[in-house]
Amino acid sequence: MSPQTLTLTIDPAAAAAPFEQVRTQIADQARDGGLPVGYKLPTVRGLAEELGLAANTVAKAYRALETDGVIETRGRNGSFIAAAGEAADKEAAAAAETYARRAQRLGLDHPAALAAVENALRATYGTDT
Asked: Which residues face 79 on adjacent strands?
């Protein structure tokens, strides 16, 4: 992938839905610096045409990316890669705090709550923690 070029490949045989493939690939490219902060993404319709997907599929991926703080939409000006590092850290910390409080309300002790997180991370990332 050359710098500042969005490169997406949709695998119709993949287990992940097309919108999830779009979301994951854009997020990964933003995280690894392939898409720098401020990079203007294609329009929903333009990307949908390019990938042979429905516009709603790309719109769903863009909404998820915006919710995750990876992109920001500036009205008619389009969607851009956001400075996601700090936003992602804050959101992860808030999610962790919410989980910790919920685990405590459920009566889990610290080791049980931690084990649940480690199991979820293994399932999600496919690696040992």
From this structure: 73
Alpha-carbon separation of residue 82 from 86, 87, 104 (angstroms): 10, 9, 34
Task: Express each pLDDT in 14-48 by its tens digit.
Answer: 999 999 999 999 999 998 888 998 999 999 999 99
CA distance readout (Å), 4 to 37, 38, 56: 10, 10, 25
Contact at 8 Å (CB) between 17 and 53? no
CA-based nearest residue to 80, from 57, 68, 54, 62: 62
Angle at 7 between CA 65 and CA 83, to 5 degrees: 40
pLDDT in tens, 114-123: 999 999 999 9
Q: What angle do CA 45, 50, 52 make, to 5 degrees?
A: 90
Question: For residues 85 and 79, what is the distance between their CA atoms, to the nearest angstrom?
Answer: 17
Report whether 104 contacts 116 (CB < 8 A). Answer: no
- Cα 101 to chain centroid distance, Å, stands at 24
What does each C-alpha distance from 6 to 52, 83, 101 come to in angstroms? Answer: 16, 17, 39
